[in-house]
From TrEMBL:
Gene designation per UniProt: Rnf213_1
Keywords, comma-separated and alphabetical: Ligase
Any one GO BP annotation for this protein: sprouting angiogenesis
Name of this protein: RN213 ligase
Single GO term (MF): ligase activity
Assigned GO CC terms: cytosol; membrane; nucleolus
UniProt superkingdom: Eukaryota
Record-linked InterPro entries: RNF213
Length: 148
């Protein structure tokens, strides 16, 4: 948010981890992050890395230890649920741990995201169904089963 005109991360910069994420998927992601290339400006992010299975986590740590020697300028962020801080990945990378609390007020964060998710030309776009021609939207309800 310090550089509002910079684009949001692209699909190759983010890995959304689940218990079903494979070692191959994590390996490809880590290779993109840790093998030097001419870009060098991307920030790679693993979301919910604490949900990886034990076997996948072990292989990911081994690959990270092996590949980090090839690139000292990598930029990798691993986000985990603080309630699962004792799972494998948070424990293995605990020396790099930083507790984060959003530092910006919610309205400012919302404006930033609106800037990036607004469709500039909404003609015949699915974004026309969302408020203010946004290309993403969240539909929620406090009651279950109300058709949302």
């Amino acid at each position: 948010m310090n550089s509002p005109e910079q684009p949001l991360p692209t699909f190759d910069e983010v890995l959304l981890c689940t218990p079903h994420t494979t070692a191959e998927q994590v390996g490809l992601f880590l290779r993109r992050c840790l093998i030097p290339c001419n870009e060098g400006k991307k920030i790679y992010t693993m979301l919910y890395a604490d949900e990886l299975s034990y076997d996948v986590s072990c292989r990911a740590e081994e690959l990270f230890q092996h590949l980090q020697h090839y690139n000292s300028t990598y930029r990798l962020v691993i986000l985990c649920n603080c309630e699962r801080e004792h799972s494998y990945i948070p424990s293995a990378f605990s020396q790099y741990k930083v507790h984060m609390i959003p530092q910006r007020p919610l309205p400012e964060i919302q404006r930033y995201l609106q800037h990036h998710y607004r469709v500039t030309r909404p003609s015949s776009s699915a974004a026309s169904v969302f408020k203010d021609h946004m290309c993403v939207g969240i539909v929620s309800s406090k009651r279950a089963g109300v058709g949302k």
